[in-house]
């Protein structure tokens, strides 16, 4: 939305609010989802891994946005060009698309793998 409709400030606020709400709800629900599928003895590792991945994702997203805007800032100018904001929004959307496709591919791969056999059974 930001790439296409930056001319209406109220719409940007609405979109940012919805996105913020989505991130907040997702971040709050993720620990419960992780705990539901993780053995009790591995919960601390799983939660730590979630925090690290989340922090790395936020850092990469911020770095990509900043780099894109810096590359689109003319020499001596204070702010990037309008095209820079559009480019940064599309780079962010592309990164999100890659993340979604990767997550879906990993999910499908984990469903196809046979369950490990216990050494006690076999």
UniProtKB/TrEMBL annotation:
Transmembrane segments: 12-40, 52-71, 83-106
The entry's keywords: Membrane, Transmembrane, Transmembrane helix
Major facilitator superfamily (MFS) profile domain ranges (all copies): 1-122
Entry's localization field: Cell membrane
Membrane topology, record value: Multi-pass membrane protein
The keyword Zinc appears for this protein: no
Main location (coarse class): membrane
Highest taxon in the source lineage: Bacteria
Keyword Cytoplasm part of the UniProt annotation: no
Descriptive protein name: Major facilitator superfamily (MFS) profile domain-containing protein
Lineage: Bacteria, Bacillati, Actinomycetota, Actinomycetes, Kitasatosporales
């Amino acid at each position: 939305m930001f790439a296409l409709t930056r001319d209406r400030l109220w719409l940007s606020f609405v979109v940012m609010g919805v996105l913020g709400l989505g991130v907040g709800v997702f971040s709050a629900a993720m620990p419960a989802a992780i705990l539901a599928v993780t053995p009790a003895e591995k919960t601390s590792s799983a939660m730590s891994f979630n925090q690290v991945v989340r922090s790395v994702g936020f850092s990469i997203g911020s770095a990509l946005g900043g780099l894109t805007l810096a590359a689109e800032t003319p020499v001596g100018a204070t702010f990037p060009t309008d095209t820079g904001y559009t480019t940064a929004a599309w780079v962010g959307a592309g990164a999100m698309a890659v993340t979604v496709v990767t997550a879906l591919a990993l999910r499908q791969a984990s469903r196809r793998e046979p369950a490990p056999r216990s050494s006690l059974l076999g």
